[in-house]
Amino acid sequence: MMRITEIVKHLLIVNFIVFFGIQVLLQAHIDVRPWFTLFTPDTGYFKPVQLLTNMFTHYEFYHILFNMLVLFFLGPLVESALGPKRFLLLYLAAGLAGGTGQMLLSSNASIVGASGATMGVLAAFAGMFPNLRLMLLFPPIPVKAKYLAIALIAIDLFSGITGTRTGIGHFAHVFGAFVGIGLVIYWRKLNLR
């Protein structure tokens, strides 16, 4: 396993600080949703800052756990390959695209989580290391990164279009993944010139 990189470390810290901070504020009956949840404009609660803050917001432990596991295991290789500035740009751009895509294409009134950003990292990883085998958690079998990314994007696209498995940001995952792989392809072409 690769040593954790600086940007990944800081993103993990910020995500967990925001998560535990929100838990404390919610226990004190302080409504943080207007600042940390991305609301669709039709609700009347939309604020532009939510496009950024929502990608650091998780209200449930398993939600943050799975997003941060992806970042922890795949992020260091992607950051090492791209460099810290490009990696941070990829993470933030994928997160912004994920939240915006979910807001525009979903009937969900509110959106939270780093899923778009972490799917961008997964797609970037698959684009840079397509034949590297990743071990799934359930079931514990090795799968090439390219096949895992394609399968997850296809499942999310199908689920988003058909409306199955509600409560999940399927379009956030798809938009984040396309931005992640798109940036990798773009930077690869720039480096070839």
Shape type:
globular
Count of distinct strands: 4
Unreliable runs: none
Helix content: 55-70%
Mean pLDDT, all residues: 93
The largest sheet, given as strand count, sense and whether it forms a barrel, is: 2 strands, antiparallel
The gyration radius over C-alpha positions equals 16 Å
Largest sheet, spatial ordering of strands: 1-2
Q: How far apart lie the N and C ends?
A: 33 Å
Number of helices: 8
Report the β-strand fraction as a percent range.
Answer: 5-15%
Structural class: mainly alpha
Order of helices and strands: HHEHHHEHEEHH
Helices and strands in order:
Elements: H1 6-27, H2 33-36, E1 38-39, H3 50-53, H4 61-82, H5 84-105, E2 110-111, H6 115-128, E3 133-135, E4 142-144, H7 145-162, H8 170-192
Antiparallel strand pairs: 1-2, 3-4
Helix pairs in contact: 1-4, 4-5, 4-6, 5-6, 5-8, 6-7, 6-8, 7-8
